Amino acid sequence: MNLQDKRRSVVIFTLFFVFVGFSLGNISRAEDGYRLWLRYEPLPESIRQQYRSRVSAIVVQGTSPTLNALRDEFVTGCSGLLGTQIPATDTVNLAGAVVVGTAKSSPLIARLNWSLTELGTEGFRLRSATMNGRAVTVIAANSEVGAFYGVFHFLRLLQTGQPINKLDVSQKPRLQLRMLNHWDNLNGSIERGYAGRSLWKWEELPDKVDDRLRDYARINASIGVNATALNNVNANSRSLSAEYLKKAAAIANVFRPYGVRVFLSARFSAPIELGGLKTADPFDPAVAEWWKKKADEIYQLIPDFGGFLVKANSEGQPGPRTYNRNHVDGANMLAAAVAPHNGIVIWRAFVYDMKEGYDRAAAAYDNLQPFDGKFAANVLLQVKNGPIDFQPREPFHPLFGAMPKTQVIPEFQITQEYLGQSNNLAFLAPMWREVFDADTYAKGKGSTVTKVVDGSLYKQKITGIAGVANTGSDRNWTGQDLTQSNWYAFGRLAWNPDVSSKQIADEWIRMTFTTDAKAVATLTRILTESHEAVVDYMTPLGLNHIMWGGHHYGPAPWWNREGRADWNPPYFHRADEKGLGFDRTKSGSNSVAQYHGPVREVFANLQTCPENLIVWFHHVPWDYQLKSGRIFWDELALHYQRGVDWVRSARKDWAALSGVIDAERHAAVAKKFELQERDAIVWRDSCLLYFQTFSKRPLPAGVEKPAKTLDEYKAKSLLNW
């Protein structure tokens, strides 16, 4: 066979499989969740007819890694959604063409002479216009990545059935740094990971880069995530070795066309463990020089390296306090190393020291607030949404609004360490909305957490947000199909902290599962109610940190085996014969004083404290009468029952969607709901039985009797059922 015959055979072979694959895909494609919200399945014919005249061709002028990826994504998305091949071209020769690019890459866009300055480097303008006498749609931006974000916005409009005939949209992200933190270890395991092993496959890098990493990057680009910290905050020094920096560089090369920059978690003691120094004291000139040379080495390999994420002097991690220095000393030393490269240092505020009689909820404020205004200009202080540790519900962290001269960014946990992990549905957008909408009163009424973190209150120059990722090597990325929604929700809120939970849920459902109106309404309700339900059957009325030790899966309010008091549930719930809860008022730890006056006054008063946080701030008597007219004990028990009832109802609603949702994912989620009902019952029974040993009161009417004894529930963790 000659070369021409070989080429002809390859073309025929390829076209055959493309045809077969396309045909089978339209007849019956098995759904495994891999495509997430970028499925690009054909829209209903009535909608396709409306769109076809508006999307006749994709016009992308110029070539570059980003423009090429953008063009491929746009053609694939539009062709799939419209059920016909949409051509890519570099000229406007059809009415209904969509023109994409920047003034630099596209002469067509340059001729429009649009002013895009206010959009910054990542914003875009999406507008109906006329070119060469033809009606077209234009997506213009100052950067190629900004244009890519515009493409994904346009595809979202198509996927969710929005009108595109009279478009005039200008958007830019409200937060500059929109980062996923991966707690991935170099051995491939993931701390608090519930969806398989690390995506990075360190052992294969840099010679082999898994094709899946490209999909990871484009998924993040679709929701505006622009940064990834690759390794665990409980860092291994080897991640900064020459060997692993080459691996990180290989990943960065894949991410770069999609606008995703790489960060690394740095172990503070790396100068000792890698550099052979005798100390990691930030005041030692040799230590500072080691970090400077290490930064130079990294930027030589990864020119767009973002910087360092640091967990220091927390839960056994080394840090500046090891050498009698403070957090500012450590953060600013590292900041000086990356500053010549325009890098940043993200310093985690999750710091607490166990000492007699202290309140762990007050520790971060006590440790860091006195240093307001002393951190370098390229340091961000990363603050968890609440003052304890990613609990199902916490009050907003008092550091928000307490450090006006410091660049503060929030840290959310997308992976559900304390919320049933990948077995329980807990759509987290409502929880994150609670945080964003909370009023700190830092500069009077209306000083919301959103205004603190987006720079509008204190004019911080660098803004951002971080989310602890819930991804892994499982085929569906997140361990269960419905928890994919939290990855999506994080990105949408990072782009615009004001978007509603209902809108996020509606978008995600239409893009991921179905456009059937009745099913969308049912699923939107399930998602938006799910977080409150989980709080009800796990930690109602402000309870927190009553999970089983170590793995944190399932209830164990009795757990008291950890070496530190503040790692044990009794430290947090403080149940006794009088009542339940941690007194944080003047008669207790007085950590409520860390909030600004109006907030403090509401939280500190038992009668005005929001009842969903009442035992967070107060030791509530068992017979205290709540607004419902019921005593506290009865209300607690009924909340636990309400959570169980909700799971049963949601499980039935999901079952009724059989035939609307594809069979594969419907069956997989049904199994998860079965587990969630089991978990909810165990939570209710074991917690009420345990707290009943203190309250000495019967369960109220409407609460089911426990199926097992307290000793049986104590015998093994829910993880081992």
Brief overview, please?
The protein has helices spanning 3-27, 45-52, 65-82, 107-112, 144-159, 212-222, 242-255, 270-273, 285-301, 327-338, 363-368, 429-437, 449-453, 484-495, 501-512, 517-538, 569-573, 597-604, 614-617, 632-655, 663-695, 710-715; strands spanning 57-60, 88-89, 97-102, 124-131, 134-141, 168-171, 177-181, 227-229, 261-265, 307-310, 344-348, 379-384, 408-413, 464-468, 579-580, 620-621. By secondary structure, it is an alpha/beta fold.
**Average predicted local confidence, pLDDT:** 95
Strand percentage lies at: 5-15%
Per CATH, the superfamily of the largest domain is Glycosidases
Number of domains: 3
Low-confidence segments: 1-28
Backbone CA Rg: 27 Å
The biggest beta sheet, please? Answer: 8 strands, parallel, barrel
| Termini gap | 62 Å
CATH architecture of the largest domain: Alpha-Beta Barrel
Report strand order across the widest sheet: 7-8-9-10-11-12-13-14
- Per CATH, what is the topology of the largest domain? TIM Barrel
Shape: globular
User: How many helices does DSSP assign?
Assistant: 22
Structural class: alpha/beta
Give the helix proportion (percent range). 25-40%
What is the tally of beta strands?
A: 16
By CATH reckoning, the class of the largest domain would read Alpha Beta
Please tag this protein with its features:
alpha/beta, TIM Barrel, Alpha-d-glucuronidase, C-terminal Domain, eight-stranded parallel β-barrel, six-stranded mixed sheet, 16 strands
